[in-house]
Design goal:
Layout (H helix, E strand, L loop, with lengths): L19 H17 L3 H7 L4 E10 L5 E10 L7 E8 L4 H18 L4 E8 L7 H15 L8 E5 L5 H15 L23 H17 L7 E5 L5 H10 L3 E7 L2 E4 L6 H11 L9 E3 L11 E4 L18 E3 L8 H9 L3 E3 L1 H4 L2 H15 L5 H26 L3 H20 L4
Parallel strand pairs: 3-4, 3-5, 6-7, 6-10, 10-11, 11-12
Antiparallel strand pairs: 1-2, 2-4, 7-8, 8-9
Length: 430
């Protein structure tokens, strides 16, 4: 007979989401907390997520078989208002990844002055091997499973890796069917005809470009004289490349999952975009030199834009990075060890919590529009976005000087201080 003493011991608190990525994000938080001399109570309240939900659900596939899928939703803090964050479909989605990204989203929203806490979720699946009908069934069932913890004033999902406007439309419809009336404000990133905005899809890439323009103007570096390298040529990287090309900049290297390209004279980005539209990868583009995808990070340039996935610049390649400035369009592309090495070499890093904040900022505008049942035009939204990012950049540069820290730590001090103040004012209930 099993006794209490024979039962397995309870794992240490936090082990449910303990991953290297989550550890890196909490290490960043600790540096900011130290710079702020944050008290133990505030640290305890902010270092772990408030809510985590794991769901396992069956989906009938096109061949009649049933497959079980695992999904997650993590809400980092409930202090700032409803939570906000994307839904990703990928084979390697874990609770730890979602917890790390939810924490980053909290800091991003606080830095940008948005009234949200951070959230993140997703389903562990490979959307490339699923038909459109199967993706719809996964989305609708996952949405139904999340109904107890989401709502237009509770938690508002958005697109992320492997999802887009199509999935948001299905999610919106599933939630609306459950409550009995249309609720367009339940998600952002939905099609414009359903209450979304045409400004949302390019918003993250546009935000990256606005930050680059702003910083280079402050440095006195003419944009047209700089060499740019972009790792990732999807929804974000392709927009950054297209905008930089339109502004007269020289993009000398790009890469995606299929491989990399290099051209010292600069790539013909419109031609490359047409190639990618036809072939779904940059590989095979004849007007540039083919190189391994990972090698693009080490191409000589002035500004490097990692726009793929996390942990791309590491202790293993940081010493070979050959640029003056890194602008993190992806979430968590630089590890803490690499951060340290880059700082020693004088390479400045614009952190992800600012650089890729365009997506959540325009999502906020869309959410406000959906609540108000009023639409702003694209030009107005983009101008509001540029202003929001400019103000946030000012906050970072001032905090960096005030605390004598790097830009990433400065960004987090601004964000963490704002959330800690809100938590202190709301106190502990009951």
């Amino acid at each position: 007979m099993t006794t209490i003493s024979d039962a397995p011991s309870t794992p240490p608190q936090g082990n449910e989401w303990e991953t290297a990525f989550y550890g890196a994000v909490t290490a960043q938080f600790a540096r900011a907390a130290d710079a702020l001399e944050l008290d133990d109570e505030a640290r305890a309240r902010l270092v772990q997520p408030r809510r985590t939900l794991t769901v396992n659900f069956p989906v009938r596939l096109d061949d009649g078989s049933v497959e079980n899928f695992t999904g997650y939703r993590v809400q980092h803090t409930l202090t700032m208002g409803p939570t906000k964050g994307g839904l990703r479909y990928a084979p390697d989605v874990t609770m730890g990844e979602c917890a790390a990204l939810a924490m980053l989203m909290t800091w991003k929203c606080a830095l940008l002055g948005l009234p949200y806490g951070g959230a993140k979720g997703g389903v562990r699946c490979d959307p490339a091997r699923l038909s459109a009908a199967e993706v719809e069934r996964v989305t609708r069932r996952y949405a139904a499973e999340l109904i107890p913890v989401i709502g237009p004033n509770i938690d508002i999902p958005a697109p992320d890796v492997g999802t887009g406007a199509r999935e948001m439309a299905w999610f919106y419809d599933t939630y609306s069917q459950a409550v009995g009336h249309a609720v367009p404000e339940i998600v952002t990133g939905k099609p414009a005809v359903l209450g979304g905005t045409e400004a949302r899809q390019p918003a993250t890439g546009l935000g990256v470009t606005y930050i680059i323009e702003d910083l280079l103007a402050r440095f006195g570096w003419p944009l047209t004289e700089q060499r740019f390298v972009i790792q990732g040529f999807g929804n974000v990287g392709a927009v950054v490349a297209g905008e930089l090309h339109r502004l007269g900049a020289r993009v000398v290297g790009v890469a995606d999952a299929g491989g990399g390209l290099a051209s010292e004279d600069g790539l013909d980005i419109p031609a490359l975009q047409r190639h990618v539209a036809a072939h779904s990868t940059v590989a095979g583009f004849a007007e540039a030199d083919a190189i391994p995808g990972a090698a693009v990070l080490e191409l000589p340039c002035d500004v490097l834009v990692p726009a793929a996935v996390e942990a791309q610049i590491t202790a293993g390649n940081a010493d070979r990075i050959d640029c003056r400035l890194i602008v993190e369009a992806a979430n968590g592309p630089t590890t803490p060890e690499a951060d340290h090495r880059l700082a020693e070499r004088g390479i400045r890093v614009v952190p992800d919590v600012l650089a890729n904040g365009g997506g959540v900022t325009v999502s906020y505008f869309e959410w406000v529009q959906s609540h108000q049942k009023y639409t702003w035009d694209v030009a107005e939204i983009q101008e509001r976005l540029r202003h929001q990012l400019h103000v946030a950049l000012n906050r970072i540069l001032q905090a960096a000087e005030r605390h004598d820290v790097d830009w990433r730590t400065a960004a987090l001090t601004v964000a963490v201080d704002r959330v800690a103040q809100a938590a202190r004012l709301r106190a502990v209930y009951p």
